[in-house]
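Please, structure for the following, as tokens.
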Amino acid sequence: MRNILGYIQGYLQLSSPLTLSNASSQITLSAQNLSRSFAAHRVIHDLSLQLLRGEVLGLLGPNGAGKSTTLQMLTGCLLPDSGRIEICGIDLQKKPVLAKAQIGYLPEIPPLYRECNVDNYLTFAARLRGMKADDVTAALLQVKQRCGLEVAGKKIISTLSKGYQQRTGIAQAIIHQPAVIVLDEPTVGLDPAQIRDVRQLIRDLGNSSSVILSTHLLGEVESVCDRVQIMQHGRLIYSDSSAGMQHYAQISGHLISLRKPPALSELVKIHGISSVEQTSPTEFRIMHAPETDTVNQLLSLAAQYDWQLQQLTPLHATLEETFVKITKEDAQ
């Protein structure tokens, strides 16, 4: 049993709960000037970020950008070479036990004790976090309901599907109702229905806690995150709201639908239009120069030649296009 305890504690970095005098503070996590090297290779460079109460922050970046190393430092699993981290106003390095009591962490590989059943494992995780025995039963029922584990309580973790193992990993991270929840690729390996359920859970967690979500799925960012930060080569290169990120890469173009469209060559001849892509018999994706008054030209020509205009919608960059633009600009 002692070996099991050491194994789990090494992953979870657990501690007893704490009632904070500054619980009303809006900043739940603050990291200032973090740096980290492995041997002679610097992987994190002077990184600073803040997390607000009730906020879901999406941390993006290409492979090797330093996201997982950053999350390990923020949760106290890896010491920074320099810099300071505060969790709910508590210095993580000076008072690690108190600070870690406010953190729930799901690493990319969930820290599961696979020979346990779900109920025993989650009970064990709750007790390691210092929860009183009288409070564990209610917490276990609540977390299983939130994570969709009601029918899995007596099942051995190693026999569960990837999706249910991932849910169990999330459950151990939130069973003690932490102020800060850190999730590293929480939907990896899940099917579309499971991904939808986990995204809804993350949105719900953001109502009562602060969440950092590291993911490579840009649709996940769009659906659950309030704010986005992008890392590249160990540095933060971009920070904005998810809505702001969507508008970062402006596209000069329109999607137009014509019931009686002209030949494609006629549309290409219109002044200022750089390209026309026909997406259906009546729909066209038109790109034009930013300074060109293409909309009024299209409206005028459609009325003049009876093209029977049905739709004229501005094009917006996808998050994928925006992400590529930001990282390319930084590389250049």
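The two ends are 54 Å apart (CA to CA). Residues 192-208 form the longest helix (17 residues).
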